[in-house]
Write the structure tokens for this entry.
Amino acid sequence: MAAQTRTANRHHRIIIWSLLLLVAATLLLPLIPYAMDYVDPSGTVPNPGADLWRDVRNGNIGTSQVLGVDAGVLINDNGERWRHFRMNQLIPVGAMFMGSVLALIVLFYLVRGPLRIQGGATGKMIRRFSVFERTTHWFTVGLFWLLALTGLILLYGRFVLIPVLGPEGFGLTASACKEAHNLFGPMFLVALLMMFFTFVKDNIYARGDMTWLLKGGGMLGGDHVSAGRFNAGEKIWFWIAMIGGAVLIGSGFVLDFAVFGQGREVMAISHVLHGIAALIVITVSFGHIYLGTAGVEGTIGSMVNGEVDEAWAKSHHDRWYAEVKAAEGGGENEESAGGTAATGVASPARDA
Ligand code: HEM
């Protein structure tokens, strides 16, 4: 009986040891290659998986059956760099840039107030912009703000709108904004060309512009500074809007029509250019809008009904005023009103 019990105990021990050995072998055997071959002198154990994915990333191994641009790129390193730039630089720096310029404008207004017409308005009006010029301007403004607002929602919406609309509401809004942005973007080319050909002749550098700039356009005090039809500040805005607009349109076309063989690299570069140009033009437009409305008394009328007070013209654009007066005998043709030298005192009902 005692002999039988001893035999049974021995069998139990054998079974338990066999099981322990099996478990140990299962756990330790796969590590043997590391111990034998892969341990480098620094003591770190390289992960064979990392080598595999490094080779895939570098394009040394891995192919795709899918045909098309970039189809063989299984891991796109620059995509991660682009994402990082968008999230950690473009978005915060753009917000700070726009916010600081807006804050400076509000501060400037609170400290300096609007620039008044020297000697007060006379009530005598003078034609400044033709119907065509104003239509061109407001058509561009409408498109510009449609694109700027939808673009800003795509860039900042997740931070600003998700807390207000919730994820579903924002999803719907963002998708509508994307469609509108993609659809109306190409039309900005038409607006920009119209703007360019309408206003370029009066936005070329002329004598006196440097003096105007050096005196800060009289915005910081002192007398009004002499200027032609557009002063140096307006000319700088014109060229920023035109060059910025050209970059926006060029890069926008690359992003909108991804069917001409442009790969992800080209798309990423276009996106970066598009974002930077948009943020610059939008921010500078704050200054233009301020000066066109609250910043300079009597200016907005020029773009609304085409006329300004004669005192406004003498104060801000004395050389243009003198040209208009000199040409007064040359007739009052409405469509020539936009020209540098051919316009006259307006009849208010002329282009109503
Ligand atoms: C709500 C927005 C805007 C307002 C209230 C506004 C207002 C004005 C006003 C009042 C003028 C006439 C200034 C003068 O008589 O000297 C003007 C001129 C002009 N605006 Fe605007 N504007 C706006 C947006 C824009 C935008 C988005 C652009 C371009 C993308 C633009 C481009 C121009 C140009 C090129 C001129 C002619 C001055 C020059 O050529 O330098 N504006 N604007």
About this structure: Residues 147 and 184 are 7 Å apart (CA to CA). The two ends are 124 Å apart (CA to CA). The chain has a mean pLDDT of 88. The pocket of protoporphyrin IX containing FE is lined by residues 128, 137, 140-141, 144, 195, 199, 203, 230, 234-235, 237-238, 241, 285, 288-289, 292-293, 299-300, 302-303 (CB under 6 Å).
